[in-house]
Amino acid sequence: MNKHLVFVYGTLRRGSARAMSVRFPGSKFIAEAKVSGGLYDLGAYPGLLLDESNLLVIGEKQLIEEVKTNVPDAGQTISYDEATAHVYGNAAVVNYILIVKGRDREGKDYANRYRITVVWVKQQGHWRMAAIRVSRIRP
Predict the structure, then answer these.
(1) Are 113 and 78 in contact, with CB atoms under 8 Å apart?
(2) What is the biggest distance separating any 2 CA atoms in the chain, rounded to whole angstroms?
C-alpha cells in the first residue's frame, strides 16, 4: 500500500476526536510542523491556504498508508452549482459554487455554500493552478 506524508492541523492533530489516528488507524505521527499560510472559515472546519506570508499554521507531519479522495465525511454531501469557465489565451478563470451539506457533532444539519474562483495558467503545454479564492456565502 502506498504511504503519504501529510500536514494536518486543527482537529486532525493528535488528541482530538477527529485525529488522523481515528480517521486512518494506520497513521503514524512523524513530527510537529509549521507551514506559512492562513486558515479560512469554511463552516464546519477551517481551510488552509498556503502562501508566502509570515503567518504560521501549527500542525503535524503524519504518515498515512491510505488516502481516499473525493470521499466526504460520513453523511456529508458535496455538490456544485453555477459553474463557468472563461479562457483568455494562456489563462483561464473558473467560477463555481460549492455546496456542502451534512450534520455536525451536535446532530444539527448544516448546508454551507462557498464561492470558488480558480485562476489557471498554461505553462509549457500544461494547465497549472495559479490562484484560488474561497469565500463562504453567508445565509
Answers:
(1) no
(2) 49
pLDDT at 32 over 90: yes
- Unique residue bearing C-alpha cell 455546496: 99
Q: Which three cell numbers stand for residue 110?
A: 448544516
Alpha-carbon distance of 105 to 14, in angstroms, equals 18
CATH number for 77-137: choose from 3.30.70.3270, 3.30.70.260, 3.40.50.300, 3.10.450.50.
Answer: 3.10.450.50
For the domain 4-64, what is the CATH superfamily, name and number? Gamma-glutamyl cyclotransferase-like (3.10.490.10)
Question: Domain segments of the chain: what residues?
Answer: 4-64, 77-137
Instruction: Give the Å distances, CA to CA, from 65 to 8, 47, 52, 69, 103.
Output: 15, 23, 29, 13, 28
Report whether pLDDT(33) > 80.
yes
15-23 long-range CB contacts below 8 Å, 24 or more apart?
17/105, 20/60, 20/62, 20/64
* pTM flag (> 0.85): no
DSSP-H helix ranges across 11-117: 20-23
Residue located via cell numbers 507551514: 35
